Amino acid sequence: MAVQHSHTPASGDPVALFRAHGGQLRLSEALALGLNRYQFYKLRDQGVIEPVSRGLYRLAELPPVSDPDLLAVATRFPRAVLCLVSALAWHELTTQIPRRIDLAVARNARLPVQDYPPVQGYRFSGKRFNSGIERHDLDGIELRVYSPEKTLADCFAFRNSLGMDVVLETLELYRKRRRPDYTKILEYARICRVEKLMRPYLEAGR
Question: Ranges for the AbiEi antitoxin N-terminal domain (predicted)?
């Protein structure tokens, strides 16, 4: 759907255009809304807007971004869901430092690709993709993250690539830092087809 340039505040007040769109825009989005390159780069050179990540700019008057890398991927890949080690880090259930941002997409979706911050895409199908999604507000942008229980099941499914030591550490931290919901974990374990594998580990820790 084409943007009606006559109704945009760009010609009168470029800052108002940014404010009308949550305080942040990509250059391509600003151009589509009626801002020209000269106006855009003038705002940048004057320090009115600042880069959040490659290609994404926000008003400098806004409070500092809590996590610019996650903000960048949430803006660029709004239908993707933070998963695996990245979701563990979000929930503070790992001592691992993510080297990339793990994102799950629906089975038929295009895998997310980005140089910086680096992303790793995974295709999840059906209920495995749609189950256990939490929605968090990240500086005005919706960030979709799998719940701790869903992430645990996913990690058991990816135990060969993550390493079983990472998976078991996560389970131990989950028990210490959360009120365990074993019913919910087993529900997601069935969806991820790892119930038989997970059950002994869950029962051993009760």
Answer: 16-60
